[in-house]
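in:
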């Protein structure tokens, strides 16, 4: 009896499975690349309209984080500085620098090309819309900017230093003593073990982590780890 199906059809199921697998893999790869916000990727470092150096402003000049991010300790979100904040200094300092052209266009009415439009900073850190996060609740209980944003004071160009994933957040909630510091040191991005002795006479407390354990009890810090903590 002759074969009903031609010989080449023997490999047809394998070919179909391979094609389907390739399509599924391609869709997953495209979704991961195009649908994942860039602001969730460690190392994300967008080009800003003005090349602002945190290293110069924070590390060299000693500018406090709250001068530019003025809502961080009183609101749920941290604001980016308006043109007025930059203009307070730069109408006098480095005012002829070509790097500040976008600032002049925004703020200086006598500048050729003045349009009065706000500077369009590119956001670096952004939690997904379904995540509840309150900046003031963290910084007012001893969590420094540094814990979430890395050594910003040393960055010429700000980039995302931590993943800000759910697992990353839970690690901190389960062991907050790793990050807790005295409230006076929250905005001190050079805080280290040498600063601990200013806050205790206990000779057994030698590191920031040791002090963090003490502060956990002092501040009565007991972070929740349930889903409802962030997903409300």
């Amino acid at each position: 009896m002759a074969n009903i199906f031609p010989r080449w059809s023997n490999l047809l199921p394998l070919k179909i499975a391979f094609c389907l697998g390739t399509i599924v893999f391609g869709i997953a790869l495209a979704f991961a690349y195009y649908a994942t916000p860039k602001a969730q990727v460690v190392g994300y470092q967008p080009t800003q309209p003005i090349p602002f150096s945190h290293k110069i402003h924070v590390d060299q000049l000693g500018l406090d984080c709250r001068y530019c991010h003025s809502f961080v300790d009183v609101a749920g979100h941290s604001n980016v500085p308006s043109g007025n904040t930059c203009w307070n200094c730069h109408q006098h300092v480095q005012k002829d620098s070509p790097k500040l052209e976008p600032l002049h266009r925004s703020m200086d009415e006598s500048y050729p090309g003045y349009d009065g439009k706000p500077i369009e900073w590119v956001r670096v850190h952004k939690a997904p819309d379904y995540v509840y996060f309150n900046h003031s609740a963290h910084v007012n209980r001893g969590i420094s900017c540094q814990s979430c944003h890395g050594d910003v004071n040393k960055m010429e160009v700000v980039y995302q230093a931590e993943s800000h994933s759910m697992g990353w957040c839970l690690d901190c909630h389960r062991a907050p003593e790793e990050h807790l510091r005295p409230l006076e040191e929250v905005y001190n991005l050079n805080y280290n073990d040498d600063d601990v002795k200013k806050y205790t006479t206990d000779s057994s407390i030698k590191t920031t982590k040791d002090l963090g354990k003490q502060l956990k009890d002092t501040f009565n810090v007991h972070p929740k780890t349930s889903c409802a903590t962030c997903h409300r």
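note: Residues 35 and 189 are 34 Å apart (CA to CA).
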